[in-house]
Design brief:
The complex is a heterotrimer of chains A (about 100), B (about 500) and C (about 625). Chain A is mainly alpha-helical and about 100 residues long. Chain A contains three helices and no strands. Helices cover about 80% and strands about 0% of the residues of chain A. Chain A is elongated and about 50 Å long. The termini of chain A are far apart. In chain A, about 15% of the residues are buried. The mean pLDDT of chain A is about 90. Chain B has a domain of about 240 residues. Chain B has a two-stranded antiparallel sheet with strand order 1-2. In chain B, helix 3 packs antiparallel against helix 11 and helix 4 runs antiparallel to helix 6. The N and C termini of chain B lie far apart (about 50 Å). With about 625 residues, chain C is mainly α. Helices cover about 75% and strands about 5% of the residues of chain C. Chain C contains 25 helices and two strands. A two-stranded antiparallel ribbon of chain C has the order 1-2. Chain C is globular and about 115 Å long. The mean pLDDT of chain C is about 90. Classes of the chains: A mainly alpha (about 100), B mainly alpha (about 500), C mainly alpha (about 625). Chains in contact: A-C, B-C. Chains B and C meet through helix 7, helix 13, helix 15, helix 17 and helix 18 of B and strand 1, helix 5, helix 6 and helix 24 of C.
């Protein structure tokens, strides 16, 4: 029997993987992947809890997140392509213009 | 006479806008004209002032943010009347004595703006308005010290600004909290002082609020150990800045003690009486000692201001009519005397570009008139009877004697130590032989300096001999305030104390 | 009669203000003439008032209100009664003489006009002091004379020692004034008023402890002004001022203000004989202590100054023992002969080009016989030889000491009288007789202007005859002051008088004999006692080492260490800590995206931790 706990553990594992990815990866593309994993970890959690309580709003929220993730990736990838064209690299450390 | 207070507050501001279009050559004349008009307005206020009415007069009120009780609320009583006149008078005098050529236009405009804020502080009866003027007054002074000062002027200006500003931050919290308390008590918001005077606060709350206000006022006064900004500010400020700073701005702190701390928190004031008085005594003695050790003339006078402010605090916390009236009168007299002394130091600084005492000596031979006026001011500063300095000092100490004779004795050493540093300064600078060639050819006071100083000398003597018209007006409002305190006092011990210190007679 | 009061009081200040106009200009005789005229005018008015008071008048005038605050209401009030009128006459008489004398003495001084401004201002302050009807009015005059004394001691301000002495006098008086102020505060809170009349009316109904405290505090003030131990050092240093000033202020008038205060407040002091006893004891001590310093001093003016101190001690003894009229009487006679002595000394200084060392004079009698005679008269009066003025007043003090059963006081004063005789005649002998040392040193002494000598004549006459007014004087002032009853037998009194007079005359004769023979040997000057006396018991040195220098060091310490190093440093430290922490945390903003993400994660973790562990509502 797969219980809520299993889903939440899965969500937690995914979230941790995402965090590690965000922290460790220097490649911008990989960063995007990691963010997607983070978002989807949350999605799993939302969907599971929604089913558990029988309340649809969690699942609706998941859809929102998917939509937002999609648009984010669209915009983000666009910027990334632009950045690659300009600097010839998608290494994170090349982005230092915000240094205070 | 209906809107005279608004006119007095905002006339300099209006003049400031005209000032921008006046040419550089005529700006000083313009400034003096405005200051004269402003001074005359304040005199008109005095003439129109009903000396038999102890409450607030010429009150102007309209709500600004009515749902939060913030209003434009002005009023004058015996306590603030003469401080307003002092502000306008000293601004006028310092403008007459003004001798700066650099960016004079900006300077005059700044001074006039400063005048508005000073008058505003003394006339506001709404706490938010008061706070606005209180903080606004820092900006012109910051600019004056920073732009026209000497030496480490930027450091001094920023220190002055940040120190006093930081001190006031807690006061703002206190103000908002008191407004909220008023809301809790009555269901409506109000920041007006007369409303607050009706508010009876629980003892613990009084303690906290007293503390919050105390820090702001103590930095402004400045009380030991929050005083170190003052010598820097005075040391670097141009003459006109020092004059206004010492003569008027320091009085904002002591005025606020009398206007807010005592009547709003009578029990807390009594509770903190001895600690505050101890600090004041430390101020008196310690500052007098430090003044004695100084090598810079201006620093001597700066520290002497701290010492005198200590006596004012002592008089204030005597909480009887003698002490409070004396404290307010001492504010006026210290304003006039310290202002004059700073101007006198400015005179010699203009000539020699140094203020170090050991650069001088034998000035009495070279500049006899200057020495004479300096001498008169010195005697007023050490509180010689029949000069303005005696009346306030005598009354303040007299008042406090009822509270504690021992503390009065310590505070009274100020009259000895004051004589020490002033006479030694005078001796070093004016007596002896002229040892430096640069000093041998110094010119005595010129017409401009005379015009600025003679009214001060006249006031020193006149108010020393006949202070009564001022004293009786102050006294009336002070008595009313003490009555209010007595009525509001929660603890029986406070009540007893107030009754005891306000009546003569031996122990029963 | 009120107009006489106003003339007497305000004529001097008018003169002062008039000559003030000339201070910045060259010497102008008109200032001296106008001030002298106005002082004489004031003297005549005072004399008129004296006669009027004798006929039973008591003037009480209130001018305007001065200070009013709380329940305090303080007018400028003046009273002319039997006590104050005596002081008025004494003050205006001596000051007129001194003023006229100064026209000669100051003739070549560049501060000529300024001098007369100050002198008249002094007289005005002194009159306020004696005429006020309340304690604060007295305090105005008290401080006013202090100011004038400061200005006149430091009159030759180019001299370092003069301005130093001025400061010393002012500051030392301030110390004592604080005591007096405390006394005034206590009076106010006890009685609710400062007026003599009301205070003395209720003083009986007040707790004795309080009255004692008031008495002691007032006496501290009196000690300062009358230069009693331990405040005595300023008086000797005050001799830096011009000699007429020493005569007027530091002998005849101002320094006696302390005695006047005790006499004026006699109603109060009478209730607390313990305080009176302290006063008398201290007076006795000073009488002998000061006389001992005069024994060996070589400075012409300082000898007379110590003598003044000693005589002030005598006055305090009388006042302390309740013999107020005797104190006042001695005050008056002392004013005459001591100012004469000083003015004579001024003549000598003038003749000797401001030389003060009496060992450098000698044999001046030939050059200035009139001065010599006048000074001899004053000295005899000071010693108390019959029939000169001092005889009557001083003997009365000794008798009062004996009468009260205070034999040790009497004995000390008796010894003091002998010392007085010794130093007075030592001075006379060394200055006017013996070898003409001055010739070797190249001085050309000459007698002063005749008008100056004429001006001194009234003082000479009064020093001689004033004593015979003892009975009328007693009758006059005891209308206000308490009578002093002698309980001892008349024969004892006579015996005492003969004993004292005999002793004094013996000492005088011995002194004259000894100095005519060439004086004491040099060997004496190496004795420890001699050195002790010569160095004024090392008290000025002690003050220097124990007070002045430590105070300066402490002040420097307070400034350099406490103010700069501790307080200001901590203030700046707070600012620096804030600034540094800002500098440090700037590094967070590296601009690197992955750094930012890391900080973001840290933030999330912290927020989560707070959300989990901090549950205020639960």
């Amino acid at each position: 029997m797969i219980t809520l706990t299993h889903y939440l553990v899965l969500s937690g594992i995914l979230f941790s993987l995402g965090i590690v990815g965000v922290l460790r990866r220097k490649n911008l593309l990989m960063l995007f992947f990691s963010t997607e994993i983070l978002l989807n970890a949350v999605n799993v959690g939302f969907a599971a809890v929604s089913k558990y309580y029988g309340d649809l709003s969690g699942q609706i929220f998941s859809f929102f997140i998917i939509a937002i993730a999609a648009s984010e990736v669209a915009v983000g990838l666009g910027l990334l392509v632009l950045w690659y064209k300009r600097s010839g690299t998608i290494d994170l450390d090349s982005l230092q213009m915000m240094k205070g | 006479m209906e809107h005279i207070l608004s006119i007095i507050v905002f006339f300099p501001l209006v003049a400031v806008f005209f000032g921008f279009v006046i040419s550089k050559e005529s700006i000083k004349t313009f400034g003096i004209t405005v200051a004269v008009v402003e001074f005359l307005l304040s005199i008109v206020l005095w003439i129109g002032f009903d000396t038999s009415n102890a409450g607030f007069q010429f009150v102007e009120y309209f709500p600004l943010i009515s749902q939060f009780g913030v209003s434009y609320y002005l009023g004058v009583d015996g306590i603030s009347l003469f401080l307003v006149i002092l502000s306008t008078f000293m601004t006028l005098i310092s403008l007459i004595g003004l001798n700066i050529k650099k960016d004079i236009k900006n300077l005059v405009i700044t001074i006039l703006f400063l005048e508005m804020t000073l008058v505003g502080v003394f006339l506001s009866l709404d706490m938010i308005l008061f706070y606005i003027f209180w903080e606004l007054s820092l900006i012109p002074m910051l600019y004056i010290i920073g732009a026209w000062g000497s030496g480490q002027r930027v450091y001094a200006a920023i220190k002055f600004f940040l120190y006093t500003f930081a001190g006031s931050a807690l006061m703002l919290v206190g103000i908002l909290y008191l407004g909220y308390q008023y809301f809790l008590a009555t269901g409506t918001w109000s920041f007006s002082v007369p409303d607050w005077h009706l508010l009876v606060l629980p003892f613990n709350m009084q303690l906290w609020l007293f503390g919050a206000f105390f820090l702001a006022f103590a930095v402004k006064v400045p009380m030991f150990p929050f005083h170190t900004w003052l010598p820097y500010a005075h040391g670097q400020a141009p003459t006109i800045g020092s004059v206004l700073l010492a003569a008027v701005m320091l009085k904002m702190g002591t005025y606020a003690f009398i206007r807010f701390s005592l009547p709003l928190f009578p029990d807390a004031s009594y509770y903190f009486l001895y600690p505050v008085a101890t600090i004041a005594i430390i101020m008196v003695i310690y500052a007098a000692m430090v003044a004695y050790a100084q090598e810079d003339m201006k620093q001597v006078i700066a520290y002497s201001s701290i010492s005198h402010m200590g006596i004012i605090i002592i008089g204030t916390f005597a909480m009887n009519a003698e002490g409070l009236t004396g404290a307010i009168f001492l504010m006026l007299s210290h304003g006039i005397v310290s202002g004059a002394l700073f101007m006198l130091v400015g005179v010699i600084y203009d000539r020699r570009h140094t203020k170090m005492i050991n650069e001088f000596g034998g000035l009495a031979t070279v500049m006899p008139r200057y020495a004479a006026i300096f001498g008169v001011m010195m005697m007023a500063a050490v509180g010689l009877p029949l000069t303005i300095g005696f009346v306030g000092e005598f009354l303040s100490l007299l008042g406090f004697y009822r509270v504690s004779w021992l503390m009065t004795l310590f505070a009274g050493t100020g009259i000895i130590l004051g004589a020490v540093y002033m006479l030694v300064l005078f001796k070093k600078a004016f007596f002896g032989k002229v040892t430096k060639d640069e000093n041998a050819e110094l010119k005595d006071l010129d017409k401009r300096e005379f015009t600025a100083l003679i009214p001060l000398v006249a006031l020193v003597v006149i108010l020393g001999v006949y202070p009564k018209p001022i004293l009786s007006t102050i006294d009336m409002s002070v008595k009313k305030m003490i009555n209010l305190m007595e009525k509001k006092a929660l603890l029986p011990s406070t009540k007893e104390f107030l009754i005891r210190v306000n009546h003569t007679g031996g122990k029963k | 009669m009120e107009k006489y009061l106003f003339v007497a009081l305000f004529a001097p200040i008018v003169g002062s203000l008039f000559s003030l106009l000339f201070t910045a200009r060259k010497k102008n005789v008109i200032t001296a003439l106008v001030t002298s005229g106005l002082l004489l005018f004031s003297f005549v008015s005072s004399l008129t008032l004296l006669f009027a008071v004798h006929d039973g008048l008591v003037l009480h005038v209130k001018l305007m209100d001065w200070i009013s605050a709380g329940s305090l209401n303080l007018p400028f009030g003046f009273i002319v009664d039997n006590v104050s009128v005596i002081m008025m006459v004494t003050v205006t008489l001596v000051s007129s003489v001194v003023n006229i004398y100064s026209m000669g003495y100051m003739a070549h001084d560049k501060g000529y006009n300024r001098f007369f401004t100050y002198i008249s201002a002094f007289v005005f302050s002194m009159l306020i002091l004696v005429m006020s009807d309340n304690f604060v009015g007295l305090f105005i005059g008290w401080e006013g004379v202090g100011l004038c004394s400061y200005l006149l001691i430091g009159f030759w301000y180019e001299k370092e020692s003069a301005s130093w002495a001025g400061n010393e006098a002012f500051i030392m008086n301030r110390v004592a004034d604080l005591g007096m102020l405390m006394g005034l505060f206590l009076i106010y809170w006890q009685f609710g008023t400062f007026s003599y009349e009301e205070v003395f009316a209720h003083v009986g109904s007040v707790n004795v402890g309080v009255v004692t405290t008031i008495g002691l505090l007032l006496f501290i003030g009196a000690m300062g002004k009358s230069a009693q131990f331990p405040f005595h050092t300023w008086l000797a240093d005050a001799m830096e001022g011009p000699t007429p000033v020493s005569a007027l202020i530091h002998a005849a008038t101002m320094v006696t203000a302390g005695v006047y205060l005790v006499i004026r407040a006699s109603d109060l002091f009478m209730l607390v004989p313990e305080v009176g006893h302290i006063i008398a004891t201290l007076g006795t001590f000073v009488a002998v202590f000061a006389a001992s310093m005069a024994l060996v001093n070589r400075d012409l003016k300082r000898i007379i100054a110590y003598s003044t101190l000693s005589q002030l001690g005598y006055m305090f003894v009388a006042a302390g023992l309740g013999a107020y009229w005797i104190a006042l009487f001695h005050l008056m006679t002392h004013a005459f002969f001591k100012s004469l002595l000083f003015l004579g000394a001024g003549n000598i200084m003038h003749a000797m080009d401001d030389e003060l060392d009496i060992k450098k004079m000698g044999g001046l009698f030939g050059a200035m016989p009139y001065t010599a005679i006048l000074m001899a008269v004053a000295s005899v009066a000071l010693c108390g030889v019959y029939p000169f003025a001092g005889f009557f007043s001083k003997d009365a003090i000794l008798a009062a000491a004996f009468n009260g059963g205070n034999f040790y006081i009497w004995f000390a004063l008796f010894i003091g009288a002998g010392m007085t005789a010794f130093y007075s005649f030592r001075l006379i002998m060394l200055v006017f007789f013996g070898d003409k040392v001055y010739k070797k040193l190249g001085f050309h002494p000459h007698e002063t202007y005749p008008f100056v000598l004429w001006a001194l004549l009234p003082l000479g006459i009064l020093s001689t005859v004033a004593g015979f007014f003892e009975k009328p004087f007693e009758e006059f002032v005891t209308k206000v002051l308490d009578k002093y009853e002698f309980s001892m037998a008349h024969s004892t009194e006579l015996g005492l008088i003969f004993l004292t007079s005999g002793f004094v005359i013996l000492v005088i004769v011995a002194t004259i004999y000894k100095y005519a023979k060439g004086g004491f040997s040099k060997q004496l000057e190496t004795m420890p006692l001699f050195l002790l006396l010569k160095n004024q018991y090392y008290i000025p040195k002690l003050y220097e080492v124990a007070i002045f220098k430590p105070y300066y060091a402490l002040s420097r310490f307070a400034w350099k260490q406490i103010d700069v190093r501790i307080i200001d440093f901590s203030v700046d430290m707070i600012a620096k800590i804030l600034y540094r922490s800002g500098q440090q945390s700037r590094k967070m903003q590296s601009g690197n995206l992955s750094d930012m993400l890391r900080w973001m994660v840290v933030g999330i973790v912290i927020l989560l931790a707070i959300a989990i562990f901090y549950r205020p509502m639960v």
